[in-house]
């Protein structure tokens, strides 16, 4: 049953990738501007400088993304589950949630930076602050959507609260939580880029902006490609995880 | 022995209350199958939820062997109309869910193998519920209940979603396994035929709110070739009359 990335999906991804590159290549030929270099030159540049210049930035960015998502899941999922399962908790926390969800958290960046400094902590806090809401709300709603009848078998067996969580709530919501994580991932990479443009000398955000300042468009494009590829790999990882844990669907 | 005295259950809606069961009293003898029959909406399922400890908001007295219902200490096998299987567990895991929650030894023993074989699901152990037919899913639910070795078996219209041929086969199979350990069983149904075929006693409930209309001793219970006999026909007519009579 477990279908880890079917052939068709791979073919689709390859087709999309090629179409994009061809479009880019044609554009570069027509415009002949330094700001749109040929993709061939960019890929050659990546091969030349990846090890010596880009790798360390990938390492930092990947670390921040993974930490941010891990913290958001570890805090957000249990909180969402508790809100979904215990109505009283939901009644207290939901209004807070609805009120704070639409606040553009990125606007809080100056405050966070004054409070937590320019270093790693602020960057992580920003990522967590922005993506945790999606994860909390998805976890809560999934638990609420589990049909009441699903719990009956376990209740009639005299199962404990913990058993209800491990046997029903966690497996029932895992796939939705992974979907929310995938959505959050896109957002997380954007925030990462933004927060890496200051207060650090490491990270893909820094690398791209720095290349731009140096008017080295080949490096800049290389950075964008590598960052995109990083996001793509994380996407696939979540896809594989989803296929693996949700093979029952 | 299950004693139910003056059991009343109210459902609280947004602006109104509905009385589902109204002072229902009945004794259920140990080692018997009691079929409960009544029109839909008469609170049959509600009664089962009370007996299985799912619903605690009731008035009156319900006791099993002189003690309050506690699914933690009693072993209750519950089989629901829509099977109550967990879709993320395969047949093996679903079948063992009961013993897992009760923290019995893990794995299938000789008796479990016997049950699985009897129900013809021993070859489906690594399938997930959505890969099974309705009849197969119901057999998994039955296997789970029997493997638990319950003190009390509660069945809520378990065969009503099956086609007629599968249903009769399942009824036979159920009786055959039940024979081996004669566990006290409460069987909810809306079918006169099923009530007669499976119940040693038949409890007829009135339309909502549910009350006991009549308790019948089933003379036909476990006669050979039951469905072709005159006694069956006579009982069936009598039962239909009671079910549809007013008051």
Note the gap between the termini of chain A.
9 Å
Write down the overall geometry of chain B: globular
Poorly predicted runs of chain B are none
Largest sheet entry of chain A: none
At a glance:
The complex is a heterodimer of chains A (249) and B (247). Chain A has 249 residues and is mainly α. Chain A has helices at residues 7-31, 39-85, 87-100, 109-116, 120-145, 148-156, 161-195, 204-213, 217-245.
Can you describe this structure?
The complex is a heterodimer of chains A (249) and B (247). By secondary structure, chain A is an all-alpha fold. In chain A, 82% of the residues lie in helices and 0% in strands. Chain B has 247 residues and is an alpha/beta fold. Chain B has helices at 44-51, 91-95, 97-101, 110-118, 134-147, 164-181, 192-198, 230-244, and strands at 2-12, 17-28, 33-37, 59-64, 67-68, 76-79, 152-156, 184-189, 201-205, 212-217. Chain B has a six-stranded mixed β-sheet with strand order 6-7-8-3-9-10, sandwiched between helices. A four-stranded antiparallel β-sheet of chain B has the order 2-1-4-5, covered by helices on one side. In chain B, helix 4 (110-118) runs antiparallel to helix 5 (134-147) and helix 5 packs parallel to helix 6. The longest helix of chain B has 18 residues, at 164-181. Chain B is globular and about 50 Å long.
Keywords summarizing the entry:
heterodimer, A: 249 residues, mainly alpha, MetI-like fold, 0% strand, B: 247 residues, alpha/beta, 6-stranded mixed beta sheet, 4-stranded antiparallel beta sheet, 10 strands, 25% strand, globular
Topology:
The complex is a heterodimer of chains A (249) and B (247).
Chain A: H1 7-31, H2 39-85, H3 87-100, H4 109-116, H5 120-145, H6 148-156, H7 161-195, H8 204-213, H9 217-245
Helix pairs in contact in A: 2-3, 2-5, 2-7, 2-8, 2-9, 4-5, 5-7, 7-9, 8-9
Chain B: E1 2-12, E2 17-28, E3 33-37, H1 44-51, E4 59-64, E5 67-68, E6 76-79, H2 91-95, H3 97-101, H4 110-118, H5 134-147, E7 152-156, H6 164-181, E8 184-189, H7 192-198, E9 201-205, E10 212-217, H8 230-244
Parallel strand pairs in B: 3-8, 3-9, 6-7, 7-8
Antiparallel strand pairs in B: 1-2, 1-4, 4-5, 9-10
């Amino acid at each position: 049953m477990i279908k880890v990335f079917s052939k068709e999906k791979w073919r689709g991804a390859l087709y999309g990738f090629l179409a994009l590159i061809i479009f880019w290549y044609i554009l570069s030929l027509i415009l002949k501007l330094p700001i749109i270099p040929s993709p061939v030159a960019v890929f050659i540049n990546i091969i030349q400088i990846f090890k010596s210049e880009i790798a360390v930035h990938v390492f930092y960015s990947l670390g921040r993304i993974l930490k941010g998502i891990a913290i958001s899941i570890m805090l957000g999922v249990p909180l969402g589950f508790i809100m979904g399962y215990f109505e009283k908790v939901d009644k207290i926390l939901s209004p807070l949630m609805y009120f704070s969800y639409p606040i553009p958290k990125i606007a809080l960046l100056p405050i966070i930076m004054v409070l937590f400094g320019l270093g790693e902590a602020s960057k992580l806090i920003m990522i967590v602050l922005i993506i945790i809401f999606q994860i909390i709300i998805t976890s809560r709603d999934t638990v609420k959507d589990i049909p009441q009848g699903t719990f009956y078998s376990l209740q009639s067996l005299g199962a404990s609260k913990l058993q209800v969580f491990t046997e029903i709530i966690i497996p029932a919501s895992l796939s939705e939580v992974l979907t929310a994580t995938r959505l959050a991932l896109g957002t997380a990479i954007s925030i990462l880029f933004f927060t890496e443009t200051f207060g650090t000398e490491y990270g893909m955000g820094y690398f791209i902006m720095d290349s731009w300042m140096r008017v080295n468009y080949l490096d800049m494009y290389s950075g964008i490609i590598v960052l995109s590829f990083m996001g793509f790999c994380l996407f696939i990882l979540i896809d594989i995880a989803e296929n693996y844990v949700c093979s029952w669907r | 022995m299950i004693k139910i005295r003056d059991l009343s259950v109210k459902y609280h809606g947004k602006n109104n209350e509905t009385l589902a069961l109204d002072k229902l009293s009945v004794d259920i003898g140990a080692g018997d199958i009691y079929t409960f029959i009544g029109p839909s909406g008469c609170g049959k399922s509600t009664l089962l939820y009370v007996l299985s400890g799912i619903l605690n908001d009731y008035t009156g007295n319900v006791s099993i062997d002189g003690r309050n219902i506690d699914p933690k200490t009693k072993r209750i096998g519950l089989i629901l109309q829509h099977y109550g299987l967990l879709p993320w567990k395969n047949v093996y895991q679903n079948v063992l869910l009961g013993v897992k929650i009760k923290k019995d030894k893990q794995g299938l023993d000789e008796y479990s193998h016997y049950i699985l074989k009897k129900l013809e699901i021993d070859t489906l152990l690594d399938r997930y519920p959505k890969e099974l037919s309705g009849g197969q899913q119901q057999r998994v639910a039955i296997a789970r209940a029997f493997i638990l070795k319950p003190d009390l078996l509660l069945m809520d219209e378990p065969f009503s979603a099956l086609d007629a041929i599968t249903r009769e086969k399942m009824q036979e199979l159920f009786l055959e396994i039940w024979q081996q350990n004669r566990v006290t069983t409460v069987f909810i149904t809306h079918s006169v035929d099923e009530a007669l075929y499976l119940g040693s006693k038949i409890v007829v409930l009135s339309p909502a709110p549910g009350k006991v209309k009549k308790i019948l001793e089933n003379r036909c219970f476990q006669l050979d070739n039951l469905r072709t006999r005159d006694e069956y026909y006579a009982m069936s007519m009598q039962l239909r009359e009671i079910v549809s009579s007013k008051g």
